């Protein structure tokens, strides 16, 4: 029931994710961070199994930082997306000795970034290491609803306010039509000024539950 989606507008890319940490029929917390800032101008939004999602996101984050530390320049968004795709592909086909071992990450990725020469971009990377550069994308059951809304209302060159309005329409549709809809969502944006949090959409307080 995870919800991760994003789109590219005029001079920016925006990614949205729910903030629920769920296992089985239980909600453990409603302020889980699923969008990580890779560097000053890149965001990675991940959905999938909790352990894989956290471990793989941190792995990509540290390797992107290591590349910049070693070379003195950051990876472009395209390079970071291709590196991410290569790591997922390698995990799918890992060899130990002469034995073929299946060790995939159950994680889907939206990678958004802004480069000075190419502007904003959004990359779709699924758990089978499929990579596409897209204008809009979504993962999870909510993709059935959010993609239909974006197909109807999205257009190239959207302003930031138009993009936020479209995101709100997607969230409203998810909450009204998905059987088990996440209560809270966070939006993050990346543009020429950098990657940052844009807004929250909450229907429950963002706090971890307390147990006796």
Automatic annotation (TrEMBL):
PROSITE patterns assigned to the protein according to its UniProt record, in alphabetical order: PROTEASOME_BETA_2 (PS51476)
Main location: cytoplasm
SUPFAM superfamilies linked: N-terminal nucleophile aminohydrolases (Ntn hydrolases) (SSF56235)
Transmembrane parts of this sequence: none
Pfam family, one: Proteasome
Location of the protein in the cell: Cytoplasm; Nucleus
Protein purpose: Component of the proteasome, a multicatalytic proteinase complex which is characterized by its ability to cleave peptides with Arg, Phe, Tyr, Leu, and Glu adjacent to the leaving group at neutral or slightly basic pH. The proteasome has an ATP-dependent proteolytic activity.
Subunit structure: Component of the 20S core complex of the 26S proteasome. The 26S proteasome is composed of a core protease (CP), known as the 20S proteasome, capped at one or both ends by the 19S regulatory particle (RP/PA700). The 20S proteasome core is composed of 28 subunits that are arranged in four stacked rings, resulting in a barrel-shaped structure. The two end rings are each formed by seven alpha subunits, and the two central rings are each formed by seven beta subunits. The catalytic chamber with the active sites is on the inside of the barrel.
Family recorded in the similarity comment: Belongs to the peptidase T1B family.
Name of this chain's protein: Proteasome subunit beta
Organism name: Arachis hypogaea (Peanut)
Lineage, highest ranks first: Eukaryota, Viridiplantae, Streptophyta, Embryophyta, Tracheophyta
């Amino acid at each position: 029931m995870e919800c991760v989606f994003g789109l590219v507008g005029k001079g920016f890319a925006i990614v949205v994710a729910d903030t629920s940490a769920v296992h089985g029929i239980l909600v453990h917390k409603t302020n889980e961070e699923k969008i990580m800032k890779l560097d000053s101008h890149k965001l990675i939004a991940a959905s999938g199994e909790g352990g894989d999602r956290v471990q793989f996101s941190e792995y990509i984050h540290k390797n992107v930082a290591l590349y910049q530390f070693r070379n003195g320049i950051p990876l472009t968004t395209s390079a970071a997306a291709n590196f991410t795709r290569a790591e997922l592909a390698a995990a799918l086909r890992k060899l130990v000795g002469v034995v073929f071992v299946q060790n995939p990450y159950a994680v889907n990725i939206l990678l958004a970034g802004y480069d000075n020469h190419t502007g904003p971009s959004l990359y779709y990377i699924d758990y089978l290491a499929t990579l596409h550069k897209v204008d809009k994308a979504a993962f999870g059951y909510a993709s059935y609803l959010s993609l239909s809304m974006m197909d109807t209302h999205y257009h190239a060159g959207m302003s930031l306010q138009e993009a936020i309005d479209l995101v709100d329409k997607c969230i409203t549709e998810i909450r009204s039509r998905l059987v088990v809809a996440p209560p809270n969502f966070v939006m993050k944006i990346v543009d020429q000024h950098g990657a940052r949090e844009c807004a929250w959409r909450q229907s429950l307080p963002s706090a971890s539950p307390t147990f006796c």
